[in-house]
Write a structure and sequence with these properties.
With 134 residues, this protein is mainly beta. The protein is built from no helices and ten strands. The chain has strands at residues 7-13, 18-19, 25-26, 41-51, 58-66, 73-78, 82-83, 92-97, 105-111, 119-127.
């Protein structure tokens, strides 16, 4: 079970370049340092296979943070370019502890090619454990 407060995306369509569909995660204080002690884990899983008119299209997913929920900066968490033909249902594309130093608000950014995708969705959340797969 996933607490809705810690969800970034829930079967959210990724057909255009955009940010997380749900509200950013609010860590409830400035400079929460979530990675010290028991780390929080970020998970991004393909919910529905991605598709594009161009079989060489690529997706990049990155974590951004913000001190004020309006100015966003890239963090060190970022996928490589992921080829659309490899983005099948249940594929976990991020399963890693959050960095030790983050700002208060967190969201994901999905970067796609100019032609966008014609299908595909993701689930994304933060929790206390490494994901064990399906």
């Amino acid at each position: 079970m996933i607490d809705a407060h810690w969800e970034l995306d829930d079967a959210a369509a990724i057909t255009i370049a955009r940010d997380s569909t749900l509200d950013p995660i609010d860590m409830a204080k400035a400079d929460p340092n979530p990675g010290r002690g028991t780390p929080l884990w970020l998970h991004v899983v393909i919910h529905t296979a991605m598709a594009s008119v161009n079989s060489t299209a690529k997706l990049v997913v990155s974590l951004e943070d913000s001190a004020d929920n309006s100015t966003w900066l890239d963090t060190e968490v970022k996928t490589d370019e992921l080829l659309v033909t490899t983005l099948v249902a249940r594929l976990e594309i991020i399963n890693m502890p959050l960095p030790a130093t983050l700002q208060r608000y967190l969201k994901l950014k999905y970067t796609l090619p100019a032609e966008n995708f014609i299908a595909g969705a993701v689930n994304a959340w933060v929790d206390l454990h490494a994901h064990q797969g399906y």
